[in-house]
Amino acid sequence: MAGALRGVVALDGPSGTGKTTVARKLAAKLGAGYLDTGAMYRVVTLAVLRAGIDPTDSAAVAALAGDVRVGVGTDPEHPRAQLNGEDVGEEIRTERVNVAVSPVSAVPEVRRVLVAGQREIIESVLGSVGGIVVDGRDIGTVVAPGAPLKVFLTASAEVRAARRSAQDSAAGRDSTPEHARASVERRDQLDSTRAVSPMRAAEDAVVFDTSELSIEQVITALSELASRRGLLGGEFAEARR
User: Which of 57, 137, 155, 177: disulfide with 199, CB 3.0–4.6 Å?
Assistant: First the structure.
């Protein structure tokens, strides 16, 4: 373990910036917990689809939201996503969920329920582990506005589309760079213009462009940033002296 994170690192940004991979690896490196808030919205979206509800029917989605048991793991080495106790880690990454997750996520009641759950998870992990890396689209602005380190990852549309296409292909899902670009741009538009908790960088966030950087380079830079903020103890902090 390279160090011990104390506090919350809020990691926001659009699809294809490497956000989820960076968050998991950073948490593992710093001996911290990890929370993928996007997975929680995807689990609710899957529940909506399984129930035969139109994702754009806000009233019906809101009525279902409170009855869905969303389970997520906080171990960065073994992330999991559960719907009412069932492992749905693979299913929430399918194209039908990709298409439906933005309208479901825009429903105020869905956000109210999940944000409350996310804050509970964060407090629990802080109490047991001491630090947590949380990734999403409204962490620094809504979920954990008091986080001592907020980072907003960006990358060019071309790079993000290529990454998403490669990710889908590696997982056995049909994809092309053109389809991936249309998908990420659609998601960007919906997430940044929704009425409740739109995706945007917090005023005090560090905006970090990952277009020309490898995952390891981003993790190294963020680890050093956390150290400069005084959030790390143990071996990492000693090495920096």
Answer: 137
